[in-house]
Structure formats: C-alpha cells, structure tokens
Amino acid sequence: MKVAVAMSGGVDSTVAAAMLKKEGYQVIGITMQICPLMSRASDKADDSTIDTEKDAEEAASRLGIPHYVMDLRDVFARKVIANFCEEYRQGRTPNPCIRCNRYIKFDALLEKAKGLGADFIATGHYARIEKDSSGNKYLLKKGADKQKDQSYMLYALTGEQLKHTLLPVGNLTKEHVRQIAEEIRLPAVDRPESQDICFIPDNDYAGFFENYLPGAAKPGPILDEAGNVLGNHRGIIFYTIGQRRGLNIAAAEPLYVIAIKPEENAIIAGTREKAFSDELIASGLNWIGITGLTQPITVKAKIRYHHHAAEAIITPAGGNKVHVRFTNPQMAITPGQAVVFYNGDTVVGGGTIESSKNTGDIAENGGKA
C-alpha cells in the first residue's frame, strides 16, 4: 500500500518515512507550502519555507523516495490564518496547530495524497491510533513518550481521518527516534525543533498583526474587577489570560490578566488567585472515544498543550457544548484554547473553551465582580 508522509525536513517525519519504508509500504514524501507569500512577517517565513523544502527534499533523496511539494497556502490562509486573526481580535487565544491538523494536514493534504494514489497519510506526531475491542472504531491515544505526547493537538480529527492516518513514531521515545536517525545517517538528526508558530517566525506578533490586522492594536485601559483604571495596555491582541508580563502596573502584589473585554477594548487584571477557575464551557465538540455525551462522566481534562491534565466532570450543556467542573481550580483557563478529555491514555474528545467561571462572570457584569 502507498502512504504519503507529511515531511517537514525534521527528524520525526523523516524517521516516520524511514520506518514505513522498512515495513514495506510504498512511501512518498510531501512537503506543504503553507506560509504566506507577501507580508512583512513572511519575509522570514519565506526563508524558513525554502529551508524546509530543501531539508525535506534532501531527506527524501537519502531515503530513496519520491518527494512532492504541495501549495496549500490558500486553504491555510482561509482556515488557519483568518481564524487566528479573528480570534485575537475577539480577545481569545487560538491554537492554530490544531486547526492546521484538522483542516490542512489531515484534510486538504490527505486529498492531495489520494490524488497521488496514497491510501494513508503519515506524520511524525507522538500519538497512537488503535482500534477498539470491537475492531470497528478508531481510537486516538497518547504517545509512548509522555514528555512528547501530541494527542492533544490531534483531538479534532474525525474517525474517517484516523482511519487513513499512520503515526509511526507514536510508540517510540524521542531518544529512540534520534537513535534511528543517527543509525541511518539522516541529515535531519541535528536540526533543532522550532517552538514558533510557523507563520510568525521569531514570535514577531507585532509585525504579523501590523500586516494582517492593521489598526487592531489600539491602546486601552487596564481595569480591576470593580472597573477602576489601573493602567493602559497597548492592544488586547497582545494579551492572554494568565499573562503577567507587560502589564506595567505598580501594585502591592503581582497582577495577572484575568479577563479580556474586546467590546470595551479593556483588560481586566487581578491577583494570581483570581486567575484560577474550576469551571468552563466548551463548544465545537469532537468525540473520538465515545459516540457522544448523554450524561456526566469523570475524565482528565487538559486545557492547553503543556497543561497537566486534571480530574474533572463533564456534563452536556446543550447545543454541542459541555460544562466542565474541575475537582481543583486550574490556572488561566483561556477562551479560544482547546480542552481535551482523557480516559487513561485514550482521548475521549474535546472542544474549544468558550468561557470559564471567572471570565464569564466578569464579562456578563461589565467588569464588576
């Protein structure tokens, strides 16, 4: 069978391709062009894209597999960048990698791969796909390397997408993957891992927003919960829930962003204690481990990628929403981020955080507790 590997030129996707070839698959490599062509921010992005394509082409040549470059910039701009901008405009903090996986890698790219005769698409994600006991349902599970687990980033995939996906490195640790890369002398073995959002190189948010949201960075007030002015911010697009740096407010104790009010162009600041909440509402749900939620269940819930999953009860809230109540309050529950539910190593499902108890209360009461 033929499998198309989404190759970035990095060690994980390259080793994934090598493993599949060794297992007897007919392997092809595909590198996605997704970064925008013209903008101040994309000057660096273009250089990065060229390097990625060269690295992926070299890796494919070393493995002896065909390599293709697919232009997905248009769909990426519509599905990922446009959403990213609109979310920030509304005072939310999106996760573009999750949307990229859902709409680009495992949707648009999968269709391109099928056009080349591929039966599956494969990536270097640290997660596992298995069938349930009946053999009829595909489950998404945490990667064997708990420090590198990326199942959170894949929670939005559908059953049909999981059916056509292979995750070869999901059962390995990062150390093992690097060992394989060294053994077969892959050029990507020493390539550093990027922590930046791919279309915002060097985390130059100011340059990005200047191009994509001109005029959106409007200074405004920083308020306390009673509506008193504490200071001024440089634009709500530069702030997120739980943020401490950049407030520049002299106070008896450190202050954090505890809510963002786009309708008033205001930031609400409070003590660290006020940044905790034990409830949230999530929408846009995708269920993998269950067919749907009809009654409360206990899960471990993860509210951002680097968050340690915490015990919670999730309850149907109508309209494809759930109410989540944590056993213990969690720091910086952030609208726009994903909340993903686990039963052991298995992803139950997840959705997008709409509000938490604190931020919801503040928004509804006009900045007054």
What is the CATH topology descriptor of the largest domain? Rossmann fold
Strand order of the largest sheet: 12-15-14-13-16-17
Number of helices: 8
- The CATH homologous superfamily of the largest domain is named HUPs
Radius of gyration: 22 Å
Q: Which spans of ≥5 residues are poorly predicted at pLDDT below 50? A: 38-43, 362-369
Mean pLDDT: 91
The description of the largest β-sheet is: 6 strands, antiparallel, barrel
The helix content is: 25-40%
Tell me the fraction of residues in β-strands, as a range. 25-35%
Any idea what the shape is? globular
Number of domains: 3
Distance between the termini: 60 Å
Could you name the CATH class of the largest domain? Alpha Beta
Order of helices and strands: EHEHEHHEEEHEHHEEEEEEEEEEH
SSE-based structural type: alpha/beta
Q: Total strand count, please?
A: 17
Name of the CATH architecture of the largest domain: 3-Layer(aba) Sandwich
